[in-house]
């Protein structure tokens, strides 16, 4: 395998999201988000867990930043809660919210850590959902633009790297197709319509950014997984091509080229799932050029030809899909059934949550995205969710996480050696956090938070074994990767 040193200015980092760590759900004027409301519905989250307290980063960010500095982080990616800046999504700016993020940014910079700001990580103000029906309304485009304008003016002099939307493919699918996330809708046509509005908001934000922060860089973060064919049979290869168009190109082509893949657009039209695209929409999407592509990588997928050669028909009932698994639970009468069947890859191990572990797929993903779009890549998420055990002497020996990260970073190094320009790598996540629907037992962090689904305890921060491993990797700029793990 080709190897090459990581660039001297490589941004070794870690990531988080506001709702998953901040807590302080009603503190200092913050308004409710759709997540604050959604989790109150019985049965939606494990053990009824919420982000009302989370890991209380809002009150303990100085402690967390000090730990980041101890680890040697060069970058920290976090999101801003829209409803902390504008409690009702519009109207009067909450200066306490501005001050919180300003203080966090200053603290990071004082410790030599570059802040990487995500504008939207799934937590739309509830007032905008109530008033305008959320992302289904074009009214949200100028409202999102104003929100971004406030942030660009407040922090643009101190923040170089910005992310527009995090995993648009995930929050639209889980929110509008499978009713697993807010706004708790199960309607594929509405999902595609809302997705188009978000694309327009993304393009609007990028164009505004380039006017207000000309020396900065901005791009979306996308949950990417390369889809491979089960065999060399031409129909399996075609199925993999179609799966990549549906799962990846549908979003990335719009971000980077300003147009939707024609095959998928035609299929939506045949299924009566198409949405309105005006001439002005097309012009806007073409005009916005991201400076980089953020890639969140956990795994890809494997597919074979569809079970039955069906002709697309309208009014199908659609089955539930885990977007990270990139597969329908059952293939009958789903959008996917016209294109491919998902299958398990027998060569890959799986995590405790059933996600395939595919480090080589990481290299393939990075090289594929770069060759297709010719934009620098920022790895904005990659990590392992696992059950961590706190020992009697208060240690967390997470060698499984070290192995996972080491193997993926070696493949990232190989992608760089193959010519892919990579700005940095933000592991998910720095501390343990609320894992959306999975409560606090699915842990990702380098820092253990001593709490569980039922008891917040003292929220003590305890560095894991992986914390010190990553500290060493950063100190030697990745030179220890090949020998770090047996």
TrEMBL record:
One of its GO terms (cellular component) is cytosol. One of its GO terms (biological process) is carbohydrate catabolic process. InterPro entries: GH, GH_1_N_CS, Glyco_hydro_1, Glyco_hydro_1_AS. The active site is at residue 381. It is an enzyme of class 3 (hydrolase). Its EC number is 3.2.1.86. Pfam families: Glyco_hydro_1 (PF00232). Keywords: Glycosidase, Hydrolase. One of its GO terms (molecular function) is 6-phospho-beta-glucosidase activity. The keyword Hydrolase applies. Belongs to the glycosyl hydrolase 1 family. This is Aryl-phospho-beta-d-glucosidase. It comes from Latilactobacillus fuchuensis. The lineage of its organism: Bacteria, Bacillati, Bacillota, Bacilli, Lactobacillales. The gene is bglC.
């Amino acid at each position: 395998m080709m190897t090459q040193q990581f660039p001297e200015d490589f941004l070794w980092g870690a990531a988080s999201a506001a709702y998953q760590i901040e807590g302080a759900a009603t503190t200092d004027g913050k308004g409710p988000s759709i997540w604050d409301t959604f989790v109150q519905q019985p049965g939606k989250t494990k053990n009824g867990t919420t982000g009302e307290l989370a890991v209380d980063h809002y009150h303990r960010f100085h402690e967390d930043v000090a730990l980041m500095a101890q680890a040697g982080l060069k970058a920290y990616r976090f999101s801003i809660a829209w409803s902390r800046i504008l409690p009702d999504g519009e109207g009067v700016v909450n200066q306490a919210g501005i001050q919180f993020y300003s203080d966090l940014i200053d603290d990071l910079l004082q410790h030599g850590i570059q802040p990487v700001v995500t504008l939207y990580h799934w937590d739309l103000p509830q007032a905008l959902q109530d008033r305008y029906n959320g992302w289904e309304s074009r009214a949200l485009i100028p409202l999102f633009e104003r929100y971004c304008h406030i942030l660009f003016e407040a922090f643009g002099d101190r923040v170089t790297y910005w992310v527009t939307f995090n995993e648009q493919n995930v929050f639209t699918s889980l929110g509008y197709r499978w009713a697993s996330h807010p706004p708790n809708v199960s309607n594929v046509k509405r999902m595609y319509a809302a997705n188009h509005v978000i694309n327009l908001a993304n393009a609007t934000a990028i164009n505004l950014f380039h006017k207000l922060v000309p020396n900065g860089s901005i791009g979306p973060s996308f949950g990417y997984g390369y889809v491979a064919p089960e065999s060399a049979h031409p129909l399996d290869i075609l199925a993999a091509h179609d799966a990549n168009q549906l799962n990846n190109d549908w979003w990335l082509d719009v971000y980077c080229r300003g147009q939707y893949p024609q095959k998928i657009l035609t299929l939506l039209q045949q299924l009566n799932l198409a949405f309105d695209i005006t001439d002005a929409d097309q012009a806007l999407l073409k005009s916005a050029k991201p400076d980089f592509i953020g890639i969140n990588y956990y795994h890809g997928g494997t597919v074979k030809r569809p079970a039955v050669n069906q002709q697309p028909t309208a009014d199908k009932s659609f089955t539930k899909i885990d977007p990270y698994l990139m597969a329908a639970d059952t293939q009958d009468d789903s959008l996917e059934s016209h294109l491919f069947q998902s299958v398990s890859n027998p060569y890959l191990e799986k995590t405790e949550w059933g996600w395939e572990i595919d480090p080589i797929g990481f290299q393939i993903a990075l090289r594929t995205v770069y060759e297709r779009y010719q934009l620098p890549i920022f790895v904005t998420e990659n990590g392992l969710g696992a059950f961590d055990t706190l020992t009697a002497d208060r240690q967390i020996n997470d060698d499984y996480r070290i192995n996972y990260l080491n193997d993926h970073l070696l493949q990232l190094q190989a992608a760089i050696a193959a010519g892919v320009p990579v700005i940095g790598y933000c592991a998910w996540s720095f501390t343990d956090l609320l894992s959306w629907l999975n409560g606090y037992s699915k842990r990702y962090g380098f820092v253990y938070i001593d709490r569980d689904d039922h008891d917040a305890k003292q929220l003590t921060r305890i560095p894991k074994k992986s914390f010190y491993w990553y500290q060493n990797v950063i100190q030697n700029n990745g030179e220890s990767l090949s020998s770090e793990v047996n």
